[in-house]
Amino acid sequence: MQSETYRLAVRGQTDLHLGALPTTKVNFNKVMTSQGLNKLRGFRVADFNITLTALPGKPNMFGTAFIPNPSPQTLTVGNVTQDLFVDGTSIGNTTINNLILRPGDNYVPITSMTDQAAVIELLTTKFQNGIVPVDIRGRTVVYNGQRLPYFERAFASTPLSTSMDIGAALKKVGLDIRVLTGAGGALPTS
After folding, report:
1. Distances (CA, A) of 6 to 32, 35, 72, 99
2. Is 53 helix (H, G, I), strand (E, B) or coil?
3. 107 touches 64 (CB < 8 A)
4. Partner of 71 at 20 to 30 A CA spacing, among 110, 119, 130, 170?
């Protein structure tokens, strides 16, 4: 997860037996270098939408994350839940269900449960342009109902950051960020 490249070594000795041929000893001593996940550099939220009518405890943000995989490996990860922070303030969590990281560019659906009141407070006090820097920290990884501590540690040790245009998302649902931040404008009438 952390490395741009990593080395894999296979060393050992075994017996090789094939059909009627005599058994022979085989020595393995091979080291190869491969591309790693490079801290998932390039991660971003490609697009997202907010709903203001979600029931408590249900997702209120839906979108797509871009996760690059420069390695040659396909990794079946499972359900990944990550905590979301803005300026050190927790604003909720996001989940990627059934994450499979294939080599190359991966676009995966995400759902989030965010504290919309906390986000509005941040917009009105610190991020009046609507662009919010979000820090993402891994919390849990579950595959077939089983927690996977090795993936959890990898995601927890690889914090991600992205900027999200909350102002544009609010505009899609009919709210003008200029009204929320006191910069003028008017709420839509419906």
Report:
1. 8, 6, 12, 23
2. coil
3. yes
4. 110
Domain ranges of the chain: 5-35, 40-179
> Hey, what CATH class is 40-179 in?
mainly beta
Mind listing the pLDDT tens digit for each residue in 136-162? 999 999 999 999 999 999 999 999 999
How distant, in Å, are the alpha carbons of 30, 40, 71, 85, 133 from that of 65? 37, 12, 18, 17, 15
Token pair, residue 94, equals 């996001």
In angstroms, rounded to a whole number, what is the distance separating the alpha carbons of residues 84 and 151? 18
Alpha-carbon distance of 78 to 145, in angstroms, equals 9
Amino acid at 133: P
The predicted model scores a pTM of 0.81
What backbone phi and psi angles, to 5 degrees, belong to 43? Answer: -55, 140
**Alpha carbons 119 and 100: distance in angstroms, whole number:** 30
CB 52 within 8 Å of CB 59: no
